[in-house]
Write a structure and sequence with these properties.
With about 350 residues, the protein is α/β, with parallel strands linked by helices. The chain is built from 10 helices and 15 strands. Strands 3, 4, 5, 6, 7, 14 and 15 form a 7-stranded mixed sheet that branches. The longest helix is centred in the middle third of the chain and has 13 residues.
Length: about 350
Amino acid sequence: MAYPSTYSAWRRSPGTKGSKEQRLTINRTDNEPLPDTLQPKDVVIKIHAVSLNYREIAMLIGTYPRDIESGGIPCSDAAAEVVAIGSAVQRFAVGDRVAPICRIGKLEPDDDGDSESIGVNVPGVLREYALVQEKQVVRLPSNLSWEEGSTLACAALTAWNALDDLKYVPKNASALLQGTGGVSMCALLLCLSAGIRPIITSSSDEKLAAIKKLSPEIAGFNYKTVSDQGEEVKRFTNGRGVDFVVNNTGPGSLMEDIDFLCERGGTVSLVGFLDGFDGNWAPTDIMRLMWKSAKVKGIGIGSKAQFEDMNRYIEENKVRFDVLVNHRPFAFAEAKDAYALLESGKFHGKIVIKVTE
């Protein structure tokens, strides 16, 4: 399968950190080059779909906690097709369906070097084609569409990691999922597949009603209108508490999250920072972890091995993510509109850009 010499992409405006006053923008370019000759381990991929994460906005307005590549290509989550391979590539063939790995400096669980993250400090996937290394992509589950596959690399893998890879599911297990964004919705679908009762929170009764229609097993509450979130959690778990809390808001709610856990062995997974980085609690409060034999787990997406394990699980258990895709996919030319919807927060699930029509 041939590939073109040039392709179109979206790039951020120059700068390693935006601000709310002087925010960065994204702009289309139409003359990005691809090499004529491939190195032995090179793989050229044609990108079919890209999904957005909140961090795309955080990078533009300066709230992302690390510097970014000036003028870089954004986005980290994509589903793609192999269109050319180097002479020494063994794991993939032309026509294979793949997903790039987000953190290409963290390919194995024991990697301990500085991480390169696509769409952050190295070029991302909001483009028609990309040149990657064989070791930097994984095979997509065969049961998913391009749009569904584009949600896996960051959001779904983060959710999988937050749920401890579904290695052990206690009897009557439940999980509290903060918000209705990509990670929480991926976690919800994984929970349903594994027999874990998901309890989702939102400030929108409309979103909660729509999500509860997916399964009678789904519980949820409006965190702005309930008087006591802890009592709601107890009500939905028959007083037991939850086994997992997927924390999208940041450290401010950690102590409350620990209180939501069951009495022995629960996990709070810190996956986001929507409410910032401050926490109004005393160091002694962390002893609550000891009383409950619980843990707080910082989630940096996940390793390549975890990505492959998750994809096998999705395929073997026929887990679908079609309900995750919000509304209709945006066209490649509509990337700015997709970003605007992302920033508005007026959606649930994942916003997808269909790169190839």
